[in-house]
Design goal:
single chain; 740 residues; alpha+beta; eight-stranded parallel beta barrel; 19% helix; globular; binds (2R,3S,4R,5S)-2-(hydroxymethyl)piperidine-3,4,5-triol
Length: 740
């Protein structure tokens, strides 16, 4: 890994074994992009890569020059309106009404390792030798606004993390109306664009389309990163697939309004932008003030989508997630939400927990409904004090009873919200986001607290930390069940209202930071009506997230498969729930529900007392299995082999670091008859090792399993009256492969 600056040609070359990233200071002082891709040799001068040609209807920068136009060159920090007509990385509104600016090279510095981002989640290093950071300073001399463009290259893999810090060194205030974290101009557009989209209970489905001239974009304007679009996109060469070929993944470490956009211009250049959504964004910078953008992480891989995902998994698992739980096997939990909803008493909860304990479950989680006067979703949010009618001994009493069973205790909260029917709202009706004189829209009968105000965050912190200090709470599920409307803070002046969405998220991060540092051993799981804020920003504070409110095993195949594009398996909260399933009313076999949920932070979302004795035997086996293999399942190298978006059969697998153990998850949605023989070529095994197949007892070399494949044919290949146990719909199997 190295960062070279060639003085003469004014060229920067950031590279490691995988990637080269080359930029130059152009003749007008702006930073140009020359190359981003597979590692190449360094040379003194790469300026030939900046191609120019005289073209009709083009505007040129210099008088009597028909060559230098920003419309034609690839750039790192482009502005609009000075010959570039594409969407810019930055827009500065000035007091005279102009939005034209001109960011020219001022200087640069190299930093060993990676500096922290003030108040924002970001990837980090544990030793300076893990990464190197280049900060290029560019300045708009007329306004005095300086931008520090930060590029961190990690020693291993094709990872480049970027962000921008703005400093107003001028004499007048300005407004940032666009401040993207990343702009990357690529020389062609022959890419398939992949996004993770959906809605509540159908999060992060994979959607692909080819780029064409014009704009392709995903975004959120909901205040949360959203169920609808995830802040993650992939540019994939059409010939690339899961296992080979060039892909670029872009991930924004942010939990609020975002934009990720590709613009293909008339000459086939592709501009990728990622950052805070400019829609509604307007940040006032007074002289002396600064603004830090969130971080955008790019992963380049020529090993296909699996190669890219594995790099994201490792980076996000080890150098984004933090703290006590980062590397630890995650406790198997039983959450009472689908077991009882709001209908519980202390005794009923203890009864559920007792049965879970009998099955080997380690953590009991009390979900929504324990506080204030919360008997349904109309009341109570904001009053973080246990409801004595339900819990006469408070959270402390219940936690003690759970601990006495030999289990850990966890608690649900939704700290950003308030119901109007709550003591908090009655005391502070002005604490919600609302526009004076206008209707206040609700979501699930709740309103959003103005987390841009420190006193609001302080007061919530006081309330919740009192509980956590007095009760044995080992886990917190932090929920967020509505998007923001009427985003307005009564505490900010008119010309700062465009800051509220971002200040809100900063308030959320601040509360997370305070709670995670004050209670470092509590395991946090993020949640937003399932996966409405399943993003890298949350992962920095909460090493796992509830992936979706849809707990049906078949629906989960798509959700978890899509989620795995960017997020590590250890971060994907996945539970076994009852049948008929509460979201799609489907009946799937108990083993299939577990076989899907094993590939995640595993748990149960039901009252185990309601299962038959036979089922309880199975549950006990499942818990034992998970305890034995969870390190491998959650932290092993994950490969997607067959996609639920492409067929009836789905296969994925994990391999241990030493390659001595692997687990293959095989799933078939609908049953088939007189079917073809099937096999699947495995990945990541040691060619020379021999593995015993747990289902057949046969032993195979790694190269056999990877090249001719694992035979997955079953009783469906042939006549139905065969001797073997018949299959039904929603069948699944786990193959454990241990080296002998
Ligand atoms: C939405 C979450 O996703 C559910 O798991 C549950 O916690 C409910 N909220 C409780 O209101």
């Amino acid at each position: 890994m190295d960062i070279i600056f060639h003085e003469k040609s004014k060229t920067f070359h950031l590279y490691n074994e995988t990637i080269s990233y080359i930029m130059m200071i152009m003749e007008n002082g702006h930073l140009g992009q020359l190359y981003c891709g597979k590692k190449i040799h360094d040379r003194e001068d790469f300026s030939y890569l900046s191609e120019k040609a005289p073209r009709p209807m083009t505007s040129y920068v210099y008088e009597n020059d028909r060559l230098f136009s920003l419309e034609h060159v690839r750039q790192e920090f482009p502005v609009y309106g000075t010959t570039d007509y594409r969407r810019p990385a930055v827009e500065v509104l000035q007091n005279n009404g102009s939005r034209i600016s001109e960011f020219q090279y001022l200087g640069h510095r190299l930093i060993e390792g990676k500096p922290e981002l003030d108040g924002l989640p970001a990837t980090y290093t544990e030793a300076d030798s893990e990464a190197e950071t280049l900060v290029v300073e560019v300045k708009d001399s007329l306004t005095g606004v300086k931008a520090e463009l930060s590029y961190t290259i990690f020693r291993e893999n094709g990872i480049i993390a970027r962000s921008v810090k703005f400093l107003n060194e001028g004499k007048e205030s300005v407004h940032l109306t666009q401040a993207m974290s990343l702009c990357l101009d690529l020389p062609d557009y022959n890419y398939e664009w992949m996004q993770l989209s959906g809605c509540w209970s159908r999060e992060r489905h994979i959607k692909n389309r080819m780029l064409v001239q014009g704009i392709t974009a995903i975004d959120s304007m909901r205040g949360n990163s959203s169920h609808e679009q995830n802040p993650f996109v992939v540019l994939k060469r059409p010939s690339a697939n899961e296992h080979q070929g060039e892909v670029y993944g872009f991930s924004l470490v942010y939990s609020g309004n975002f934009l990720m956009q590709a613009e293909v211009d008339a000459h086939d250049t592709l501009r990728l932008l990622a950052g805070i959504n400019p829609q509604g964004f307007d940040w006032k910078l007074e002289p002396g003030e600064y603004f830090q953008t969130p971080e955008a992480v790019m992963v380049y891989s020529d090993n296909g989508l699996n190669g890219m995902s594995q790099v994201f998994h490792k980076l996000y698992q080890k150098r984004l997630a933090r703290g006590y739980w980062r590397d630890r096997e995650r406790p198997i939990l039983n959450n009472n939400w689908e077991a009882s909803y709001f209908d519980f008493t202390e005794d009923k909860l203890v009864k559920i927990a007792k049965k879970a304990k009998e099955c080997g479950v380690e953590l009991f989680v009390l979900d929504d409904g324990w506080f204030g006067k919360r008997s349904n979703d109309h009341t109570g949010l904001g009053d973080w004090i246990a409801n004595p009618e339900l819990l006469p001994n408070g959270i402390t009493g219940l936690a003690d009873r759970i601990e006495a069973l030999g289990m850990k205790f966890g608690l649900w909260v939704e700290l950003e919200m308030v119901n109007k029917d709550s003591d908090l709202y009655r005391k502070h009706p002005d604490w919600i986001l609302a526009v004076p004189g206008r209707n206040q829209s609700h979501g699930r009968y709740q309103y959003v607290l103005d987390f841009s105000r420190k006193e609001v965050v302080d007061s919530i912190y006081e309330m919740i930390s009192k509980i956590l200090e007095n009760a044995k709470v080992s886990y917190i599920k932090w929920d967020m069940n509505r998007s923001i409307t009427e985003c307005y803070s009564t505490c900010l002046p008119a010309d700062r209202q465009g800051e509220v969405f971002h200040r809100y998220i900063l308030g959320v991060y601040d509360l997370y930071e305070r709670l995670t540092s004050h209670f470092p051993k509590i395991l946090f799981e993020s949640c937003a009506s399932g996966g409405g804020r399943f993003d890298p920003g949350m992962l920095y504070y909460a090493p796992q997230g509830w992936a979706s409110d849809d707990s049906d095993a078949v629906e989960r195949l798509k959700i978890q498969y899509g989620t795995s594009m960017c997020y590590p398996i250890s971060s994907i909260g996945a539970h076994v729930s009852v049948i008929p399933n509460h979201q799609v009313f489907r009946n799937t076999p108990l083993h299939t529900r577990a076989n899907v949920a094993y590939f995640g932070a595993f748990g149960y979302e039901l009252d185990l007392n309601k299962l038959s004795e036979e089922e309880i035997v199975q549950v006990k086996e499942q818990v034992q299995f998970m305890k034995k293999y969870r390190i491998l399942l959650q932290y092993g190298t994950f490969y997607r082999l067959k996609s639920p978006f492409e067929g009836n059969e789905i296969v994925w697998m994990v391999v241990s670091e030493d390659k001595k153990t692997a687990i293959v998850g095989w799933y078939r949605i609908l049953n088939v008859v007189n079917a073809a023989y099937t096999r699947v070529c495995l990945k990541g095994l040691d060619v020379d090792l021999q593995y015993r197949n747990s289902l057949t007892g046969r032993v195979h070399y790694g190269d056999e399993l990877m090249n001719l494949g694992l035979i997955t044919s079953d009783v469906t290949a042939g006549e139905t009256e065969s001797q073997m146990k018949p299959c039904t719909d929603f069948e699944s199997r786990l193959y454990v492969l241990e080296a002998v």
